[in-house]
Hints:
Elements: E1 3-7, H1 9-18, H2 25-34, E2 39-43, H3 53-62, E3 67-71, H4 75-84, E4 88-91, H5 111-123, E5 128-132, H6 136-144, E6 149-153, H7 155-159, H8 165-181, E7 185-189, H9 197-201, E8 206-211, H10 213-222, H11 224-236
Parallel strand pairs: 1-2, 1-8, 2-3, 3-4, 4-5, 5-6, 6-7, 7-8
Helix pairs in contact: 2-3, 2-11, 10-11
Amino acid sequence: MASLGVNIDHIANVRQARQTVEPDPVLMATLAELGGADGITVHLREDRRHIQDRDLELLRMTVRSRLNLEMAATSEMLGIALKVKPEMVTLVPERREEVTTEGGLDVAAQEPSLRDIVDQLQTAAIPVSLFVDPVSKQLEACSSCGARWVELHTGAYAEACWAEQPLELARLTEATARARSLGLRVNAGHGLTYQNVEPVAAIEGIEELNIGHTIVARSIAVGLQEAVREMKRLVQNPRRDPLFGSQ
Ligand code: PXP
């Protein structure tokens, strides 16, 4: 059964739109935990467009589940992670022009530098996950970098048209099996919604799904605690043949 990490960047997006103090992602993280979040995920971006340093410092003190820090593999971020000591660091690619994280990390193309960052974090007892597309070449590179975790990018599945979804789902299923055969533990996320999450939640071997935008969007209608509760039910009790089961 997969657990649920709730990404709260989108709450900070609303606050930053007005450059003010509300809504406060720190307070909202507590509500997400009360709704059943098994972890809280934040992405501290180089341009600080949503999550701020202050948020991360306070979350470190208030999060009672697990804090997962998404960050670019830069020396500035490495210094912050070593100071904050989150329960996990997820290394992601970052481009200033992007609206959200667009593709997975090209681990294969930057193995030596990533190996060094992974090593420094792991030496400080911080588990490291690498956010990658669900392809063998990248998974093998993650393993050679010394990482013990990967987060599979579910964006291609989430964006696929109905006819192509089974193919993308099969890619995620195969990548999960391949990662595990390499000794890697597997999380997944990006673009998952209340409508498309169940097939991914049903994949054997995925330990945690990181989900943000859809939960924050739903929370406008039903409140964050309830939005997390509804998602947790789907993640923990997915229909077994969800792509076709209801037809
Ligand atoms: N996982 C990673 C690595 C991400 O960068 C994001 C987006 O910030 C998510 C999961 C969550 O994606 P979404 O907001 O589309 O649920």
